[in-house]
Amino acid sequence: MYASVETSDASGGENVRVVDFRSDTISVPTPSMRRAIFEAAVGDDVYGEDPTVRKLEERTAAMFGKEAALFVPTGTMANLLAIMVHCSRRGTEAIVGENAHGFLYEQGGAAQIAGVLLSTIRNNPDGTFCLNELARKFRGFDVHEPDTVLVMVENTHNMCGGKVLPLEWLEKLATICREKGAKVHMDGARVFNAATYLNVPVSRVIISKNVHSSDLSHRLATVCPGEMEAGVVDSSGKGIAVKVSARDWTFARIVVYTNITDEEVELAIKKIRYVIKEYEKDL
Ligand SMILES: Cc1ncc(COP(=O)(O)O)c(C=O)c1O
């Protein structure tokens, strides 16, 4: 428990205006929130029959650009679940900033319940950490070592003063983790603050909508019904599939050579513009 400080004066507190900055966790529901809670339709969630929980999960999944969402009552539980999902074997390792809530304040649940080793990395004052150091910390190349399978970040970062992680840093971190075959978990207790500060949709903050050239090349080569309706077709009404070479996630190579006609170049441009617009909607 945190120590509590009395706020009063000689009048016994009558002349004291309390402005409480201790934590956002002090906040309580507004009257309209209380009314909504009171009036919410409820049901048996085990049978998938709680319409309010279902609506919350569906709406959340859509906002975050994810296949599904799961409602859990606390942030600590959400972090533990993520650790247990991503570190599917006991004895695996997760790297986490030394000032992360998940390391400092969650009762060592990763070790206690999930059997996962947390390896800390020094946090910079802005909530980030050194990505070169991160790349060096991965283990599992030797039978004596645990496999590093997860990296955890916190956004906004509580102990670093509510700092918002830069998108560019997150993208570089995601690249390293992808290359190492590790997953990333974001403790997003205040992720909507980050989205508001950056003025981007929350799905952008959680790195779920990075456009990788392999995704892009796959999408370019696929003809979806929506684009046919939007008129992304050739002169005979056929959909356009564009093949590009994507060697790794950093670039897609598009080479124009002698067999390619001007018409094909125009069709490819039409298709690429359409697909890029699709990605931009999600950014
Ligand atoms: C960054 C962060 N993660 C997780 C939690 C844990 O949330 P809960 O208290 O709902 O378990 C908190 C709580 O303040 C937090 O600040």
UniProtKB/TrEMBL annotation:
An example Gene Ontology biological process: L-threonine catabolic process
Annotated coiled-coil segments of the chain: none
Gene3D superfamilies: Type I PLP-dependent aspartate aminotransferase-like (Major domain)
Keyword rRNA-binding attached: no
A Pfam family the protein falls into: Beta_elim_lyase
Ranges for domain Aromatic amino acid beta-eliminating lyase/threonine aldolase: 20-206
Gene Ontology MF terms in the entry: L-allo-threonine aldolase activity
Key words, A-Z: Lyase, Pyridoxal phosphate
Cofactor: pyridoxal 5'-phosphate
Highest taxon, organism lineage: Eukaryota
GO cellular component: cytosol
Lyase listed as a keyword: yes
Family: Belongs to the threonine aldolase family.
Name under which the protein is recorded: AGAP003688-PA-like protein
